[in-house]
């Protein structure tokens, strides 16, 4: 199995750890963090052994192109989504790979009570649910929260590119490693108990910049609290 597919297969439980922290399936936070860190250190060691992030390896040429540059060599189409449009739902078959060119698409996991938890906010230049390249069906749903334009690639073509092109494979591995760092931060935020702690962590992650008031409900979804709880905490800080 090509290295990036191994990394992507490892990456799927990272999303699961976010959901676990949110849904309260496991309460032992130190155990979760230790397990996550062990997997993360294994990934770094694996990449080093594969000469993907080893400074002694000549990666100047390989890393001169981003994974997006490689994707542009494949046949693709454009798709326009109105705000509120569902792109795919949980358990839908994975047939395409999406890059957001403009707008914003959220990857969502819905709870039994109807509440939504954001796993990813894909904005201009971002890949949506890229770890699903290795899956037969989606584990979450995706919806456009703003009018969006997507570039659509065939999943089969993308898998063949990664399997047969060493430079594209290295670029994909680097992209996934970056996503792992962000997912780990999200998991850490959701493991915190108090709204104030989650908000503090979110602010640190976002350079202490609070988005405009009309989008505060999006922050509430990201940190896994109700909008009302977030509004109360923000009002307390005034």
Structural write-up:
The chain is α+β, with helices and mostly antiparallel strands and 238 residues long. The chain has a single domain (3-191), classed as Jelly Rolls, CATH 2.60.120.10. Helix content is 47%, strand content 18%. It has 8 helices and 8 strands. The chain has helices at 3-23, 29-49, 67-71, 155-164, 166-191, 195-205, 216-223, 227-236, and strands spanning 76-81, 86-88, 96-102, 104-110, 116-123, 127-128, 141-144, 148-154. The strands form 2 sheets. A 4-stranded antiparallel sheet has the order 1-8-3-6. It has a 4-stranded antiparallel sheet with strand order 2-7-4-5. Strand 4 and strand 5 (116-123) form a beta hairpin. The longest helix is centred in the last third of the chain and has 26 residues, at 166-191. The termini are far apart. The model is unreliable at 17-37 and 39-64 (pLDDT under 50).
Mean residue pLDDT: 78
CATH H-level name... which superfamily?
Jelly Rolls
Low-confidence stretches: 17-37, 39-64
CATH classification, class level: Mainly Beta
Q: Radius of gyration, Cα only, in angstroms? A: 18 Å
Please work out how many helical segments DSSP would assign: 8
- What string gives the helices and strands in order? HHHEEEEEEEEHHHHH
Beta-sheet strand percentage? 15-25%
Termini separation comes to 54 Å
The largest sheet is: 4 strands, antiparallel
The CATH topology corresponds to Jelly Rolls
- What proportion of the residues is helical, as a percent range? 40-55%
Structural class: alpha+beta
How many domains? The number is 1
Order of the strands making up the biggest sheet: 1-8-3-6
**How many beta strands in the DSSP annotation?**
8
